[in-house]
Amino acid sequence: MPNASTPTTEHSVLLVQLTDSHLFADADGSLLGLNTAQSLQQVVDKARAEQGQVDLLLATGDLAQDGSVAAYQRFRQVSEPLCANARWLPGNHDRLAQMREATVQTRLLDPVVDIGNWRIILLNSQVPGATPGYLEEEQLQLLARAVSEAPQRHHLVCLHHHPVPVGSEWIEPIGLRNAKEFWAVLDRFPQVRAVLWGHIHQPFDQIRNNVRLLATPSTCVQFTPGSTDFDVSDEAPGYRWLRLHPDGALDTGVSRLDNFVFTPDYSANNY
Length: 271
Known about the structure:
By secondary structure, the protein is an alpha/beta fold.
C-alpha cells in the first residue's frame, strides 16, 4: 500500500530531486576528478538553505558508482537532514541487492507514495550489467495499476532512464529501450501530469501531450548538452525542486552550486 504523508489534498507539496550522485565506499572517491561525496554534501546544504521544509526527497538513480552498501549508507546519511521522507529508485550503476541491504526496515524503495493530492510512482528501469534501460512487464503493470487505482489524484512518474530523445547523439542509445511501451501505458491516463528522470546529467524541460518532461543536473559531474560524443562540461552540480499543487499544476526549477570550479580529468577514465 502507498504511504500517506502529512500534507492533505488541499495543500501544495514541495519535492526535491537528487540524482546521479555516483558515490563510492571511500569518502574520497572521485569521478573524472570530482569528489562525489563532497559535491553531494554541498548540493544538499544548498537545498536545505534554499528550500526550507521539504515534503519528499526523490533520488532517481545512480546513487552509487561502485554499488557498495557503504555508498548507499553515505547517501542516506548526507541526504536525510534535507528530508527524512524519501524514496529511491535504481539506475544503471546501482546494485539493487546492496541498495536493499542499506535500506532494510525502511520505505525508501517503496514504489508508490501518495502526498498531497498527488501520487508519485517510482519505476525500476535498470538492466543489470547494462547501461540502457528497460521496463520489464511487471514494471509496466505496476505503472498501469498505480495510476488506474487513483484516478482522483494527479500523477508524477519517476524513472532513471530518459524516455524521449534529449538532443545528445551519444546519449540517445543509452536511454529507455522500450519507451514506446512506456508511453502506451501513460497515454491512457490523463491524470499523469509529469515524468521525471536522471541519467543524462543535465536539465531537460519539455511538454509531450500535456505531460511535463523533466530531467535534472547530477549532484556531481555534468554532461554537455547537445554533444555528439561523451563530453563533460564545467557546469556546477545541482538539484531540482518541484512544487506540486492540488489542482495538478506544477512549478519547478533547477538550482546549482555557486562559485563552483571544476576541470574534468579525462585521464581518470572512471565513469
